[in-house]
Design goal:
Blueprint (H helix, E strand, L loop, with lengths): L4 E8 L6 E7 L10 H20 L6 H19 L6 H52 L10 H28 L18 H20 L6 E2 L2 E2 L10 H10 L1 H10 L12
Helix pairs in contact: 1-2, 1-3, 2-3, 3-4, 4-5, 4-6, 5-6
């Protein structure tokens, strides 16, 4: 069996943010193309290597990251280094490394979802607090004669939307992350937002959608319910928030594509 790689080493950056498994060719076979099993194995090592980099932070998960990198390096050496490399055995070991990585990433997922739930609780409690204050104003307990009925209704719709946002973001996050797969490693959020940024982003989207609904720039339906009625029924703000949290890509496209007044719909059959 020809020797193709003299050494397989980890070449790390100064801050360890980019620890790459590097393959060093034997000069005697440096100009020879790799056999297909070996080239596929090297590509698989590189794939798993990038998953480790994306899935485990160099600072926060340093110990876990170094542990799994060493295991991946061992598999790479078995499958490619020296005269007696064994790509089949190396591939088996690499598969075990990937399973261990998924377990470690699943532990990180718990922390991410925990932050989602925490921010959802903050959003929901803020909405309930605002509704309580508006209720006291409407009953005259808190004298605030300057607030108009329209402003009162608008604030109530926004408060209800915060409840919907909390529910929508929580549900979609749980569904998206119910099972950790290689495709989700490093992408717990589709736009790489932190949990706090996710809630602020969806809230801004909900406000924008509410303005479009209020002026009938668009018509958006959920099933048989037309969300434009939120002007008259503030409680429907819950559905606006839920739609913003659960169907964010659809609603965001309204702004991206510049929908025409009264002709666009999302989520309506």
């Amino acid at each position: 069996m020809d020797r193709f790689f003299d050494q397989v080493l980890i070449e790390g950056s100064a801050d360890h943010s980019l620890d790459l498994i590097a393959f060093f060719r034997d000069p005697a076979t440096g100009g020879t193309s790799l056999p297909e099993p070996l080239s596929k194995f090297v590509a698989e090592v590189e794939r798993v290597n990038l998953l480790i980099i994306d899935g485990l932070d160099a600072d926060r998960d340093r110990e876990r990251r170094q542990e799994i990198l060493k295991l991946a390096l061992g598999a790479a050496r078995v499958g490619a280094q020296g005269d007696h490399y064994n790509t089949a055995l190396g591939t088996q070991q690499l598969a075990l490394v990937e399973k261990l990585l998924l377990r470690r990433v699943a532990e990180s997922r718990k922390g991410f979802l925990g932050l989602i739930y925490r921010w959802a609780a903050i959003w929901a409690l803020s909405g309930l607090l605002l509704l309580s204050l508006l209720g006291l104003v409407s009953e005259g307990v808190i004298p605030l004669s300057t607030i108009t009925p329209t402003a009162h209704s608008t604030l109530a719709a926004f408060a209800y939307s915060m409840l919907g946002i909390a529910l929508g973001v929580s549900i979609t996050s749980v569904i998206r992350l119910r099972q950790v797969t290689p495709e989700l490693i490093g992408k717990f959020d589709p736009y790489d937002f932190s949990p706090s940024n996710r809630f602020f982003y969806v809230t801004l989207l909900a406000i924008g959608i509410f303005v479009l609904l209020y002026f009938d720039v668009v018509q958006i339906g959920l099933g048989s319910v037309l969300l434009n009625q939120v002007r008259d029924f503030p409680a429907m703000g819950t559905l606006v928030g839920l739609a913003a949290g659960a169907s964010e890509p659809v609603l965001a496209s309204i702004f991206e594509k510049g929908s025409s007044p009264t002709t666009s719909s999302a989520g309506k059959e």
